[in-house]
Amino acid sequence: MCLAIPVQIKEIIDENTAVAEISGLKKTISTALLEDVKVGDYVILHVGYALQKIDPEEAQKTLALFASEASATGEPA
C-alpha cells in the first residue's frame, strides 16, 4: 500500500530541497519535481518527494481526517 500525505513547507534549502513538517516532525524532502515551491505551501509527499502542490484548505481537511482516524484507533496522530 502506498500513502501520500500533505505536508507544509517550513524552509527552502535550495531549488530542489526543502524542510517539510507534519505533526511536529520535520523532514528534508525533494522538491525537484515541482516549480516555485515557497515556505507555507502544502505539498503531497510520497517517499521523500513532493509530488504536487495542494490547496491549504484541502490539506487541513486531510490532516484532520488522519487525526480523527488515529484518535478513534488509539494510534498517535
From TrEMBL:
UniProt protein name: Hydrogenase assembly chaperone HypC/HupF
Family: Belongs to the HupF/HypC family.
Sample GO molecular function, one term: carbon dioxide binding
Pfam families reported in the protein's UniProt record: HupF_HypC
Any GO BP: protein maturation
Organism from which the protein derives: Parasutterella excrementihominis YIT 11859
InterPro entries, per the entry: Hydgase_assmbl_chp_CS, Hydrogenase_HupF/HypC
Listed PANTHER family: HYDROGENASE MATURATION FACTOR HYBG
